[in-house]
Amino acid sequence: MKTCIVTTDSYLNHDTGEGHPEKPDRVTVVIDNLKKIKPKNLLWMKPKKFDYKYLELAHDKNYLHKINDSFPKEGLNFLDGDTIVSPGSKKATRDATGSIITAIDGVMNKDFNNAFCAVRPPGHHAEKQKAMGFCVYNNVAVGAYYLLEKYNLNKVAIIDFDVHHGNGTQDIFYDHEKVLYISSHQFPYYPGTGAFNEKGNKDNVLNIPLNAGTQPHEFFNAYENIFKKLNEFKPDFILLSAGFDAHKDDPLAQINLESKDYYTLTNRILVFAKKLCHGKVVSILEGGYDLNALKESTYYHIKSLLEYQ
Fold first, then answer.
1. 3.40.50.1000, 3.40.800.20, 1.10.1040.10, 3.40.50.1220: which CATH number matches 3-307?
2. What is the pTM of this model?
3. Which of 175, 213, 253, 302 has the most CB atoms in a 10 Å sphere around its CB?
């Protein structure tokens, strides 16, 4: 079996302006590095078009109309203080969402074992009715709804290891008993959500707040609670909001993981995925803002996906 990278060059045209941390180079370094080392058993796919109704499951219709009208014909448009769109953002945002749907289809149809979506903009801060934190559409939330609706799965787990709490994903699924949302993140920190007592109305949210300065051994110890919750929930599929900004070199946070720790983290998740859901895992890029750290960390993440077949 194989691992698939789902990506396309439309991300290059999502212009966030000079000096913005969420820039095209983030995806370019990931793709260039993988193509240079040419791992065996790695497939490449482009995202396909998808039914708009899946966006409407994750987001309010009025919000979607507002976003559709917000893409400028020229220049930049600020959706909030740091979430910016340009003319090329319309296709880039659709392709980012389409990537997770394409990846899910491939795993469900057994075309490949697992997948990583190397796309931007990220998605986990986008709430049902609000863009924020560089995010326009909540890609992983659309993917979860797609699994529930298209494939009639009973339970989907989302593990979010981005250093920032995925307030948007939590917001969308706070009342949804079929979706377990798990997040490890620096706290208190942007966006201010993700306290341990935020558990979801169906006990379907697990937040693991981490202090600034957390070391790798402390991080992995915290994941024991995550694996216990995952084991209790017994998902049919696991989606990963794969942010790599808990790295010690990342400029936007203060957690001290090293690049190789993402191999260990991914491997531990895959052990449970194999036991609980026959290894059905799709991962999608969220944060990560030091280019060298992102390049190395995604390599280790994908190395684990490739090896654990």
1. 3.40.800.20
2. 0.98
3. 302
pLDDT tens digits, 223-250: 999 999 999 999 999 999 999 999 999 9
Q: Using CA atoms, how far apart are residues 271 and 269, in angstroms rounded to an integer?
A: 5
Question: Binning pLDDT at 50, 70 and 90, where does residue 88 land?
Answer: very high
Looking only at the bridges linking them, the beta strands covering 84-85 and 77-78 are: antiparallel
Q: Report the side by side order of strands in the sheet with 281-285.
A: 42-45, 3-6, 114-117, 281-285, 237-242, 156-160, 179-186, 205-210
Closest to 288 measured CA to CA, from 255, 237, 242 = 242
E strands present in the chain:
3-6, 42-45, 77-78, 84-85, 114-117, 156-160, 179-186, 205-210, 237-242, 281-285
Catalytic residues: 125
